[in-house]
Please model this.
Amino acid sequence: MLVSGCGTSTPGLVDRLSAGDVQDMQQLIPDAQIKYNKDKIFHVLGGWPKPPLYQGNPFGSGGIGDTNTRYMYEGLFFFLRSMNNVYNRLAESSEDTDLTTTVHLQRNVKWHDGEAFTSKDVWGYYRLNNGAEVTKYLTSIDTPDDYTIVFHWMNPAPYPELRKLLLAQDLQGQIPYHIYKKYVDKADALLQEAKPLTDKSKDGPFNLDITEELSKKIALNWNEFTRSGPAIPVGTGPYKFEKVTTTDMLIDKFEDYWRPDAVHFDKIWIKNVPELSAQYALVKAGKLDWYDGTPPKDILESLLKQNKNLLHYRMYDPASVGLMYNIRNKPFDNVKFRQAMTYVLDKTKLREIGNYYGKEYPKISMTGVMPSSLDKEIDASVLDQMTDYTTNLDKAAELLKEIGWKKGSDGQWRDPDGKVPSFIIGAPNNWAPGVNSAQIAAEQFSKFGIPTKLKAVDSTIYFANADKGQYDMSMDWVDISWGFQNPWSSMRVLFWQGTKTKVGFSNIKKKDEKGNEIDTGKLDLKLPGIDGKIYDIDKEMKRFPYVQDEQERRQIIDNLAWIANENCWGVNFFQNATGAWINTKMMSGDFPMMEQIVQYNRDMPLATDPVEQLAITHLNHGFNSSYMPEEYWPR
Model:
């Protein structure tokens, strides 16, 4: 790893093994104690706008690339995706009152151009970037001194744990005030023109009512900001920009970094190699020190066989591959039909073709909660009361007959009008797990007697088509939490965001002053809960952040997950599993589960121990918001 942020010192890789295991390990990892990486260079993959489009404003057109962003920029906090751990970064400490969160900054932080990082930079970040989600929950931000920021929350305020997660989503060290002062001050002046919100059904930054005219001015200032700035990035992170070409980027250790003892590499060499086959070739040849992702089983086994220095760790991805039913179309508007279709599917076969190392959860349809978190987030009594959707062709046939369907002598099911249906599953053609598993699902439906075909289309048009309801069923990530790990976060995808639009939930309509019907964008979904009472889903979702009692919050999630499963708006095929590759010839350190390396021949399974799960999750660049907090050294 590149930066240390938690944990204590533990024995090294070899020290943790028995004498016999050391001998076995040295056969698996030749020359395990010889130092090869004398130049202290870390080799990884990444992407960025091709020069001359590359520029220094991370909010500009095309950005600056994701991989180098996490090495050059920092936030007040960072969260560990899929584990929900939150760590201090630019924040030295913080404390909460009922309506405030006070953050104390590290005192020796500098921007890459030598200027001091202060509370004014954090204030400026949110005044200019006022579309950041957390601003919807704030009334103001004060800076009583250069190293203190006070966030003032609306009344009622989100519960304290959620406040920190909301703040941890952002890299507040991305808008140096001394560089972008013109645009920050302009945004601040425009926001001061707005009046406080009085309509509780609306939201706006800092509880302000942003009129259409004012919104245009704010957007114009933002657009001008995105076209400005330095030619190269200026952050506070452990590495700063050196040079870039179409295929390579080099970033150097920042000599004035505020935690110099935590940076163990002098340079990071980032390769831009989009093609998977070329990436695998680099992994096999030992040209990368770190690689994220789990390839198909045959490729994974081949890579490990051909390079004895490689270690592969599997970990849960906080997302599942799944299918969504379009309830705008008949017969998918009928819950019994959706349930019947779900009983047809054999999830093991869907998982084996989609992601061999993933994990299927046969009992659920779709809950809005990451499946691997169900036991932690949902009460056991609620899970017991959920309908079990384990493959059951007899149950599928029974449900179809209940709604008037009949199976002909040709083996095809006919609807109440006597017609044999023909359904389409839509999928983006560049998403192998989705396309492959969707093809198997179509074959399973067809074999059961409901003719179904896969329609894989270019991703540039697929998602717009799916959101418009042009397919009977759509493939996408479901029960997903790309952001912070909180069940409410993943429920937002189901009820307010991507899943909502593909399933086709209706919005509340109202009349304007001229009598025209307008779409409010607010979810119109009222359904019975586990207790039989009718719940307004939108209202339950909106009240969750402000509920201070943990048990009451759990009851909200219990109820919403039960409602989602019973209504069967889609099917969770399997939870994705991803992985991290380590080139042990070039890297050393206290790697997780090393006492099991011989047993698993360097292909480490999904960990069951929480401590090991945490350590392994830290290995994934993409899960760590902006950096990796364990200490790994060049070998």
